[in-house]
Amino acid sequence: MRGRIAAALRSRLAMNAEHASSWAQALSLQTHPLSALPALRMRAAMVDEVWSSVGDTSSDLDWYAKRAALLAVYSTSEVFMLTDTSPAFASTYAYMERLLEDSWEGGKRAVEAQELLQTLARRSGPTGQRPDSA
Q: 36 lies in a domain?
């Protein structure tokens, strides 16, 4: 799944490559108060399409977390691309891959932490003490 997400983001970033010389101005227009909300909606729709295209079926808080994380990865990579002078934006794609890997690993750690907290909560009594410590 991560590989398909990376491919989708690479493809979307590649669409910006032909406009690299004017992309900074395009991004600055998106931050204008009258344009910020529509620009955010377009970005949110794009990351939602990416997640949907790889078969994500989450419908809880995880749905929002996944999309927020992917939006951050894409947007940060897009800004990185503005100063990338490597051939065919190779550094941008490598940077995006690192961010995606960090995000993926962070998500795994968050799930592990949640499972640990649930296990500890099951082991403790209503007062927060272990039942066998009374």
A: yes
Is 89 domain-assigned?
Answer: yes
Pull the structure tokens for residue 35. 């344009």
Q: Residues 6 or more apart from 95 whose CB is under 8 A from it? A: 77, 80
The total number of structural domains that make up the chain: 1
Question: Which residues form the domain of 9?
Answer: 2-123
CB 122 within 8 A of CB 100: no
Residue 134, in any domain of the structure: no
Using the predicted structure, report yes or no on whether residue 113 has a pLDDT greater than 90: no
CA angle 104, 87, 72 (to 5 degrees): 30
Q: Is residue 73 part of a domain?
A: yes
Instruction: Please say if the pLDDT value at position 124 is more than 80.
Output: no
Contact yes or no for 99/73 (Cβ under 8 A) = yes
Residue-wise pLDDT for 62-111, tens only, equals 888 889 999 999 999 999 999 999 999 999 999 999 999 988 887 666 66
